[in-house]
Design brief:
By secondary structure, the protein is α/β, with parallel strands linked by helices. The chain has a domain at 4-15 and 111-323: Rossmann fold (3-Layer(aba) Sandwich). It is built from 9 helices and 9 strands. The strands form 4 sheets. It has a 3-stranded parallel sheet. It has a two-stranded antiparallel ribbon with strand order 1-2. Strand 6 (210-216), helix 6 and strand 7 (249-253) form a beta-alpha-beta unit. The longest helix is centred in the middle third of the chain and has 20 residues, at 226-245. The chain is globular, with a radius of gyration of 24 Å. The termini are far apart. 22% of the residues are buried. Its main location: cytoplasm.
Length: 388
């Protein structure tokens, strides 16, 4: 809940949106409106003062996939359900139909061939101040692509900087207790430079707050060439240096296995099947891991502040940390954590998520372990050991 905020529309409806500022290039929203759909900005009522002929150019919006269509249908049914529950309205049929239509959202969607951007599978609503579009660069095509670190570094100025500061102050000033900031950016392209300038601004404006930065990179790229691969490596290298310098800690996240030019096998999990070549799959695995990694400072009770998490891991100025995960953790129903770890005789169950192998010489300066999704399971063995 600490990542979400409660608001209210002009009509008095309660909204629940993430405290998020998202910056992406032109063409990355597709069916998603930049201002969202919770707050209706109203139509353009400005008068036309031009007396000459007008030529209007329209572009058809991209078609929504079956998942987004079902979300729209369920939301329409939910609104009808709320209206039918108001006094003076007997709409039992509407309630029954809404209940009967909940099942389609549980069906198995095959979106691997239709998902092109993150907004194609976005389920939550966004605040109007969340999305910022960088119109100088495009998401598709070969022209005007945000490929290099210095391109992104030069972006944060002028109107884009003012827009970011305005949105940042809006979300920060309404917080009762501001722990810090999570920064997620792609470090293999120009967003590594943009992210470095963002962390530098946060360090200058909110010194003392936690700045936890996660550098993301995909397993592979379509239509990649040796020159492009070299550019990706340079962006990752320069981005890591700059992002770590201005953050409380920096953690690269990728299933690539290695960032070197030599081919390496993607990270595999014994109990999980996914296609590493699909960003739609690999991003889901990393999102699941990130949800568990950030759990300590998102808990309602017994939480650990962000700055304390950073101090635990970034020991003696070593700000670059590595993440490992077991997805899912091999713990059978009814078993204990002790039994699950005891069964790992050959190797520990977690796999590297930061494109680096686990150190075998015991050099570990700090650790933070989270276990998620085992409510009601035993962490210790219940039987009493016998002594002879």
């Amino acid at each position: 809940d600490v990542l979400f905020r409660e608001g209210q529309t002009l009509g008095g409806h309660v909204t629940y949106t993430p405290r998020l500022i998202a910056m992406d290039v032109n063409g990355s929203l597709r069916t998603l409106r930049q201002e969202g759909c919770l707050y209706d900005p109203g139509g353009d009522i400005s008068a036309v003062t031009w007396d000459g002929s007008l030529m209007i150019h329209k572009e058809s919006p991209p078609a929504k996939n079956s998942f987004l269509e079902d979300l729209d249908n369920l939301e329409t049914l939910a609104v009808a359900d709320v209206n039918s529950s108001q006094p003076g309205y007997s709409g039992l049929g509407g309630v029954a139909s809404a209940t009967s239509q909940v099942s389609p959202i549980q069906k198995d969607y095959k979106l691997e061939g239709s998902v092109k951007v993150w907004s194609d599978f976005l389920r939550i609503h966004l605040h109007p101040r969340t999305v910022s579009v960088i119109h100088q660069y495009n998401h598709d095509g070969e022209a005007n692509r945000l490929r290099a670190f210095d391109q992104g570094e030069a972006l944060l100025q002028g109107l884009l900087l003012e827009e970011l500061e305005d949105k940042l102050h809006f979300f920060a000033e309404e917080c009762d207790y501001l722990q810090g900031f999570q920064v997620l950016c792609d470090i293999s392209d120009g967003f590594s430079g943009l992210g470095s300038k963002v962390t530098e601004m946060l360090q200058d404006s909110y010194s003392g707050k936690g700045i936890l930065t996660w550098g993301l990179s995909p397993v592979s790229y379509s239509n990649s060439t040796p020159v492009k691969e070299l550019c990706h490596q340079l962006n990752c290298t320069v981005g890591t240096v700059h992002l770590a310098r201005n953050s409380s800690f920096f953690c690269p996240l990728s299933l690539r296995g290695s960032l070197s030019r030599k081919h390496s096998s993607p990270t595999t999990f014994p109990l999980l099947t996914y296609d590493p070549s699909l960003w739609y799959h690999s991003s889901a695995v990393l999102a699941l891991a990130l949800d568990a990694l950030t759990l300590p400072y998102r808990m309602r009770n017994n939480s650990t502040p962000m700055h304390q998490v950073a101090e635990t891991l970034a020991v003696s100025g070593r700000k670059v940390v590595a993440a490992y995960g077991a997805i899912p953790f091999p713990m059978m129903h009814g078993a204990s954590l002790f039994d699950a770890l005891s069964s790992c005789t050959d190797a520990l169950p977690w796999k590297p998520l930061s494109t680096c192998p686990e150190a075998t010489d015991g050099r570990c300066y700090g650790q933070l372990v989270t276990l998620k999704g085992f409510e009601g399971q035993r962490l210790t063995r219940s039987e009493t050991p016998t002594w002879s």
